[in-house]
Amino acid sequence: MAHSEADLPLRVINSVAPIRICDNGGWTDTWFAGHGKIFNIGVAPFVEVQIAVYPGAARADQITLHSENYGVRYAIVPSQPGYTHRPRT
User: Fold this and answer.
1) Buried b (16+ CB within 10 A) or exposed e, 9-35
2) Distance between CA atoms of 22 and 33, rounded to whole angstroms?
3) Mean pLDDT, to the nearest integer, of 31-42?
4) Judging by beta carbons within 10 Å of its beta carbon (0-12, 13-18, 19+), is residue 76 exposed, middle or buried?
């Protein structure tokens, strides 16, 4: 199956981070607190994000959020702040 140039991303960026639990310390590590320490624990499952970058005019929806865990996909429109679709928790 042949793909058009608009179907293929220019670049794909992947990032993974653990979920933080037991986040103790709050704002004590900020510059205005003067001193302090933070303690947190990172655990699995991890949060995974993938960004696919396409040419500017390649797609009608410039930003699309796909939440695989909830099976939903919707467009984010930068000129319209906020969004109305929220996955059920």
Assistant:
1) eeeeeeeeeeeeeeeeeeeeeeeeeee
2) 21
3) 77
4) middle
Joined tokens for residue 43: 């655990």
Q: What is the pLDDT of residues 50-81, one digit of tens each?
A: 888 888 777 777 777 777 777 888 777 777 77
DSSP the chain: ----GGGS-SEEEEEEEEEEEEEESTTTTSGGG-S---EEEEEEEEEEEEEEE--TTS-S-SEEEEETTTTEEEEE-TTS-S-S-----
C-alpha torsion 61→70→49→54, nearest 10 = -20
**34 in Cβ contact with 3 (< 8 Å):** no
The gap from C-alpha 6 to its chain's centroid, in whole angstroms, comes to 22
